[in-house]
């Protein structure tokens, strides 16, 4: 990759959500208020033992687990399920997923070995989400940002390698025609 020398190229996050049920619920409520179609609440129907859509997380109880339910062909998380004792929340949209997973960051280790712990977002949704035996999570990922379009780091590398802006744009956006309007 053209950006393989940046610290975000590969990273791992240690995350602990055990004591964050209220914070997670607040993030989910806030994100749902911003764009309802990307956050869906489901409660358990005791009669049919199925999940039915609901408008509230009332009585959902404590956080049980996080589950990646859907990925893009490139590997980005497209759908995250947050399981509570009495319900679940389906989280869609790259920013929402990064925000939910980011609230539990206890440490991030970058490719270069440097560490951090101050972000409220994970660097990208291109990651795995693995529950550990102690109930914490290990997120292994790569990149920084939404993962769509042109990489600023990659474009910088190509420019240093002698590519002009037209070649860089055509590298990231195939089939485009660059025209001078003036």
Question: Can you walk me through this structure?
Answer:
By secondary structure, this protein is α+β, with helices and mostly antiparallel strands. It contains four helices and ten strands; from the N terminus they run E-H-E-E-E-E-E-H-E-E-E-E-H-H. The protein has helices spanning 21-34, 94-102, 152-160, 165-172; strands at residues 11-15, 39-45, 50-54, 63-71, 77-84, 87-92, 105-110, 115-116, 127-131, 137-141. The strands form two sheets. A five-stranded antiparallel β-sheet has the order 8-7-1-10-9, with no helix packed on it. Strands 3-2-6-5-4 form a five-stranded antiparallel β-sheet, with helices on one face. The radius of gyration is 19 Å and the shape is globular. The relative contact order is 0.20. The mean pLDDT is 92.
Taken in chain order, the helices and strands follow as EHEEEEEHEEEEHH
Mean pLDDT across all residues, rounded? 92
Main beta sheet:
5 strands, antiparallel
Quaternary state of the chains: single chain
Q: Report Rg.
A: 19 Å
Question: Strands of the biggest beta sheet: in what spatial order?
Answer: 8-7-1-10-9
Shape: globular
**Unreliable stretches:** none
Name the helicity range.
Answer: 10-25%
Distance between the termini: 35 Å
> What percent of residues are in strands?
25-35%
Strand segment count: 10
Produce a short descriptive summary.
This protein has helices at 21-34, 94-102, 152-160, 165-172, and strands at residues 11-15, 39-45, 50-54, 63-71, 77-84, 87-92, 105-110, 115-116, 127-131, 137-141. Strand 9 (127-131) and strand 10 form a beta hairpin. The two termini are 35 Å apart.
